[in-house]
Protein 1
Amino acid sequence: VGCRPFYFWCLSSLLLLGNNSIKTSKYNFFTFLPLNLFEQFQRIANAYFLFLLILQLIPQISSLAWFTTVVPLVLVLAVSGVKDAIDDFVRSWHCSALPSDGVNSRQVCLSVSVQADLLLLSSSEPHSLTYIETAELDGETNLKVKQALTVTAELGEDLQKLTEFNGEVKCEAPNNKLDKFTGTLTLRGEKYALDNEKMLLRGCTIRNTEWCFGLVIYAGPDTKLMQNSGKTTFKRTSIDRLMNVLVMVIFAFLGLMCLILAIGNGIWEFDKGYYFQVYLPWAEGVNSASYSGFLMFWSYVIILNTVVPISLYVSVEIIRLGNSFYIDWDRKMYYPLNDTPAQARTTTLNEELGQIKYIFSDKTGTLTQNIMCFNKCSINGKSYGMVGVGIKVDFSYNQLADPKFAFYDHRLVEAVKLNDVPTHRFFRLLSLCHTVMPEEKKEGNLVYQAQSPDEGALVTAARNFGFVFRARTPETITVVEMGETKVYELLSILDFNNVRKRMSVIVRSPEGDLTLYCKGADTILYELLHSSCDSLKEETTEHLNEFAGEALRTLVVAYKNLDEDYFQDWIRRHHEASTALEGREDKLSELYEEIEKDLMLLGATAIEDKLQDGVPQTIETLAKANIKIWVLTGDKQETAMNIGYSCNLLNDDMEDVFIIEGRTSDDVLNELRNARKKMKPDSFLDSDESNIQFEKSSKKTKIIPDEEANGVYGLVITGHSLAYALEGNLELELVRTACMCKVVICCRVTPLQKAQVVELVKKYKKAVTLAIGDGANDVSMIKTAHIGVGISGQEGMQAVLSSDFSFAQFRYLQRLLLVHGRWSYIRMCKFLKYFFYKNFAFTLVHFWYGFFSGFSAQTVYDEWFITLYNLVYTSLPVLGMSLFDQDVDDRWSMLFPQLYVPGQQNLYFNKMVFVKCMLQGIYSSLILFFIPYGAMYNTMRSDGKAIADYQSFALMAQTCLLIVVSVQIGLDTSYWTVVNQFFIWGSLSVYFAITFTMYSDGMYLIFTASFPFVGTARNTLSQPNVWLAIFLSITLCVLPVVGFRFMKAQLKPTPSDKVLLKIKEAKKRPPPPSPKRRLRRTSTRRSGYAFSHQHGFGALIMSGRNMRPKSPFATTGTFSPNSEKYKHKGL
Amino acid sequence: MKNKTSFPPQEGEARPSRCPDNSAFKQQKLPAWKPQLTIATVLSSFFLTGAFCLLVGVCLILSANSVREIQIDYSDKCSECSKLRENSSNWNKECHCSINFALKEGILGDVFMYYGLQNFYQNHRRYVISRSDAQLLGRNANIQKSYCAPFTTYRNGTPMAPCGAIANSMFNDTIDLFYNLNSSVIQVPLLKTGNSWWTDKNVKFRNPESYNLSSAFAGTARPPYWQKPVYLLDEEDERNNGYINDDFIIWMRVSAFATFRNLYRRVKRIRQFADGLPAGNYTFRISYNFPVTKFKGRKHVILSTVVWSGGSNPFLGIAYVVTGTAATLAGFVITAIHLKLRKKKTYFQK
């Protein structure tokens, strides 16, 4: 196949195209330092530290050496700076790794995705037709056809003419309406109207068209797709927001503590300090107790600053980064078929993956593979097609067979070979009754251009069984029937539309028989059958039920032999009707009804809209995890519902599936209210708890509480109704009703509506949302949802590019959420709990000491200890825990999706938990201060020397603290890997090593001013009562925690505690087999007629406008299943 | 899956697979120890800790009780002297006072003599930093850069040696102990060296080097509250003079709290005192120099023996006993609750 490049030619020079690319890197080599520093100091924590640093430079206030602040600050800035630099580098690298956004693309033939909104000028196809697929834009999989203006079509591929093309296009300003375009083209003084039929929008894929030329109308951000993709907002997790609130609370707490201490200092200086001036005169410039108190306020701000831990943000970033890497590295989310690993494209949202409550999923390409498969059929009361895998039917007798087609029932081939008449008629019908266009560039290499993939699948099936649709002209259809080329005369196409739900063709066979072939939805066609088919009807119904039970899309096929005279009369009236000026449509459909009756039933086809692997199982698992799934699709209702049933979203165990399809605002409101009334009759009473709660919630942010329906319900809403429902007053009604349902399916929605739906849930529900999709039409919702997931490895990259996480298969979602999300969430919560605890325990000791040291801002610990505590002594163990911890391993968390629920309810870290951490921290700090105090008070060392000197006390308190927090992290760690062991023991050893080094003679003699604690470690840590005090502090800090945790799990077990207990018991038994059940479906018949919601190509074919000169091979191809000649040729 | 054709290698060159490594680390399958809170571990930790704490507590209380300690508050008893000292113009007047006490039983073993101060905020931040370690190390340091102010230099620029509030406020009472045996008064021999940390004496404090001490401190002046310059702190013992004077070193090791005691002297175990202090009447003779009344401070003199766990402070012992009791009780409570719950569970299972 010759492959010619596509040229999209841009009149308005390269300026427009220049905008088509996006600048992604933020820094360059020189601007990095100033820009990054500026950005970093905009973060509140860093600014706060800068402020502290300035405070420390004021001598009257400075209560700590400068390095206690500078060292952490520099380290934090360095770490974040490096991370930003890497991020920036990776981002620009990602972009350059994408296929270039260029205008011509030579690599892919016959499928090129359009990168700007173009006005179609000319194409290789007759009448400048261009076939496009818009799955990326609206999720519809059928081919659409666009046609250029005749004046521009003349340009052809003559580059000379094209470059000389001189016209003026006037069009509307860039907007987000995908289905509308108005404009005019002025060419040589004449005006031509432009509409959407002449536009190729960015995001659509050109199919089966050799070349085409277009004029760029909108580029870059002006394209309709980009206009639809919503704003890119900086996403933050709820933990982020909570953390900011908590930091503010801590600031207030810090202020309060400092105020208390400052007042204490004022009183102390007045009461005692004033008299103590004999030995300690007031500092220069201080002349009153209150002024001293004022200064002391700031001094204490410096000392107690560690309650607002600067390393918090950095550590959180590191943890998220680490957990993102695990996603990238997971082999179980790697898809070998197209070599696509999962990818965490945003590294700051991990823990939110463990809190998802709503999933918004696209259908096409996400739930389904977008592949249609002719799976089963029923011919003359006989059902063919087997479940499970057998041996593939060998179609090698047929030279024109499609090698990709697979069928597993050999009986059908036998029937064909035995010249069974109904079977032959069945496949003849499939090869004649359609609007597919064939293409044969090389002999035997047939390519079908089908308007819908279903139709393509049916024609391909007929082709493989020996009824090869080979060529068509407006008047004829050439079919190679069992090796024999037959040319049927095409007399009429009774095209498909949404009301008829069927299509028919009337053909005259070479033998001269007039036949009408019809295929359509069973409900419709069954009404039109001849009464003689009643028994066959019953058998076929049974088969249809069976097919529907497997969620296959079914079509019923029937035929009718026509009487020559009647037909001549009919065709005359048809001609009249089609040329009538008034009521043409009605007249035609009347005529169609007239001829399509008393049909003879032939059988039924069953087509599988192939789901992606493991979709039903994934959905079942996610449902068990209490996650609600909403399907938002641009496809039409039947298809959407069909998929809903086949992937087990909807099933017949549901009490009801409400369908909202009102065409006015009032209808929609009524339908929604009725649905709600049925689900929860009380919900209209004022006494209903939800109503009360809802009224209570503040005016600004109305949060609707979760409501329980009296059963399992589903809701299907169409795009039209959705448009009304999304308007102001109906919004609430929609959310309340929809959120009570287990499953919501929105069909025929625009990309923007998808985003609006997500926005709606975000607004009224305190829940974390996730949107997953693969196409450009999903970009807006991916950007809107808290977390956006893109399905990668397919053609379009739009969704992936705007997503936060991407992987190749929908089924990986359960692993992403239940394993990675859950772990990340638990790790983050554990980290925060521990982090706040350790800083409270650390800092509050200073507070208590204030009461014993004249509120003089004297620190308890050595300044070096203060500097290194967060950065060196305690950072690695907690990082180790937050990177490696697992309460249960991945198998169990997949097996018990209930374990996911605490995350949704935000149980592991919230304000309550924070208060508990704070109280625990306060308790620990009390122990850590008063035990050493009591142990040292009025006593002496075992050699009679004084023990209660400040340095010994400092060393004792800090050693107690460090061991206590290390034991505490050991208690929190439930998964001790080598790394954890190394970090925890290592940190303790490093503490002692550093302490002994810093307190050594050598260090003192070199840096006298910096290390005044010389000898303290040796002299103090050799005392038995010091160690006894340390042991007592540890016991008092840790043992209550052990008892409390154990008793809590015993007395008030949470549901997840119970599951964990179950797992613990189950672990004693051999591990369970990996869960692989086949889902049973109940069988209610649902017919899907998977055509476009638009008119078919019928008219186009009859007019012959899309015909190319006859295929050169159409008449030569002959083969016979019994012919030896072809068997050899095939080898 | 297998019958699907794999992704065709594009552009003719074999791309390396993007499949992640199958390492235990990357797949989060590192072997790990997974400790869990089971009834066995919880109960054993409670009972073992309880038993251990009780044992240690009892030992601590017993040994603390075996400590003999005599503490005498002399800030009131020497009220005349303290009144005299309230007026700083009397700084050069000497004032002595005596305090008698009787030992019904002798104090056996090593006896240590402490002075105790109450309400003296040695841990005040500005007090703690008011020193120059470099100066005390005998270096020619620029004390202006230290936090010694306002005890850095005199108005005429003469630097103080040692500088700072700590040194200036050094405890300068002298306390002597006399044993009254049959109307004869015997001075109890006391050791004034070997009372400080080895590291302080040998590393942290050094005299400036010179051919003799007074020349080493030439050009400096004593701190304002001192009665004599630093090189005259102990005229008898060269190795206890200047900065390396034990009393000075001990004072410079500031206390963590406002109430504290510092080791002052040890009883030299010779002659009558070879076994400690025999029973009888004793007198402390105190040269009262250190004013405390102004800030409501109090002064004590303490005689004490020590054991392995230190002095007579019963705090640790009591704390251990309480903790041990609490842990054991909690252990029993947990056992009871656990048994009850288990009964309930089996009951329901039936």
Protein 2
Amino acid sequence: MYNTTELCSVVSGHSSPAAILCKCTTRTAFISQLVKKRQPWILLPGNFQRLLSRVLKLALSSEGLYQLFNIPAFTTAMTSSTNVSCFHEARRVAIFGGTHGNEMSGVTLVNLWIQNGKEIHRKGVETKPFITNPRAVEKCTRYVDTDLNRAFTTENLSAPSGDDLPYEVQRAQQINEIFGPKGSPEAYDVIFDLHNTTSNMGCTLILESSKDHFNLQMMHYIKKAIAPDSCPVLLTEHPLLKYSTSRSVAKHPVGLEVGPQPQGVLRSNIFESMRVVLKHALDFIELFNEGLEFPPCTVDVFRVSEKMDYPRDTNGNIIAMVHPNLQDCDWEPLNPGDPMFQTFDGTTLRYEGAGTVYPTFINEAAYYEKQQAFVTTRRETLAAGAIKKNIGQSYSV
Amino acid sequence: MRKKMKKALEMEPVCLPALSRVAICGGTHGNEMSGVYLVRELQRQKLEKAGSATLTTVISNPRAVQVCKRYTDMDLNRCFTDAILSSPVTDATPYEVRRAQELNTLLGPKGNVGAMDLVCDLHNTTANMGLSLISYSVQDWVIMHIYRQVQRKITSAPVRFILLDLPLADAYSQDSLGKHGFSIEVGPQPHGVVRADIFNIMKEAVDQTLDWVQCFNSGSAFEGGEVDDVYTFVKSVYYPRDPETNQITAAIHPQVQDHDFCLLHPGDPMFLMFSGEIVKYEGEEVLHPFFVNECAYYEKSIAFHLARKMTVTIPPLQVKRD
């Protein structure tokens, strides 16, 4: 077994955890210092992880290490990184606000950052804040002609441009030119699209593809950083329910949906939550660009399943409201037989599905016209492989 | 306090004419959904009477309801001043002014013996105001007794009264068309959304109002007493703006957000700047914020209103027998 002095000499010369080590006089002090500093395992540079693991293995059992650092498998960190996906440096990142002109947190944050971008600046990254639907923002309305966040279809993007096209389709073509073209190597690396919802969804991250390991790793990072607060991940990968979003122009589209907040209203708590999540997201990108390798991880997600409309009469008028027991219960289980809707004269209508689902977007104002009272989801765990930056790429400041 | 109560109980009962024509209005703002759905439900149930009183139900701004917006050209609920109601109609007249004049014919004429006896206008707010009754006088004993009944019977939300101290000619809202009138304001609810809990509170308030009307008309004697939680509008507080860009530079502070009718003391935080600084309340009087962060008030740059709290003594009330 190494004593502390030997530990220090072995790890000295590396970054800050070493400084902690050298100050400790006993082994227990060393362990407690590391715990106090809350040095997340994943933030330690790859080769230092391996060295420290080898050293600590002698001082502690695997069990002890797991408890300290909450790593799924001690041995994983020990093995050399064979199955690592390499991605290009994320050099161009955009932050979209005002895709819906009355979702105020994103509008306010982006306007703030257009004025002064210091907060979103990260070394080696070009972060571009951008108001996607300025006419809708000016009128404080969701959209002018058509929903911009449904407008990025192949059909729209390849249509001949012209003033006769709906405003949002013209806008989609312009955005595709600046930040895309969608699907091409020139497209932006990451786009964060900022939204609010009247639903009680907290800080929800929206993932479009279950195979986007970069995004999965980012979301895993954000979830850990924001804990104990939760950050549910909504996976919109679905043959019918997936929609063509403004962020889909980028290689790695990330939706951020924060609620509950009424349309046209700016709530301080919602605003600050969105700000914090973005901070962590940009931190992740910076670490990635610095060469940090992110080990394999799993991410719990909610995969969209089915759209549920309001009960309507023969004229198409809504005849019931979301039941008080379901209202505000986004992400909570809805079991067969649970109350779902309440008619205006007080009758309860119950959920009659086959199994338990997890509803979300419950009572979103904008979805009345889309015939959606809520959407059901099913829980799933996605695995993300290890990722790191492509070595050999020039590092631009 | 005891002296006042004694005085109230000893007062001669006030006798007022029966309320034979009652109107319930929804959709005065087209995106305030509880009233829209409640009026539609009353129409579906073909509710035309409340005891001996006739009941009229109206969707006040159908065009705004159709597009689920507050208004199309201008706020309908600011169009009921004497001046606007009597203004000549031209091609340039906004839709809501024409509609206000139509409603004046249907429910009024304002100030005239032919007007509805009671007009009750249904509204929602994004502010956390629970159930509020809003009117222009604390000496309209019909309204004050209705308020007392609603406050006693409803337990699912806090119930308060808001006084807008304006003479009838300047009264701008639809409820001023009736001989007696008040607005029912329930929140918090996002515009464009119908929440079951909020709908049910509004329904209870309307039920209690119609119940009171029936009891009053059939001769019940209502004893005098005191009503509290009465708030008088004092002034509005505006959002701080950047002098150069005119953009709003702060959000309402978390200590005021959702704290309608709580106390605001000099020195208490009011706004949290995006830069992190706090803007404090620098008035001298302790007041009560309400309509805190109401969506519709952004266009007027109003963050919230401030009110003074008071108690009102009301006399016993009974219907006038012919």
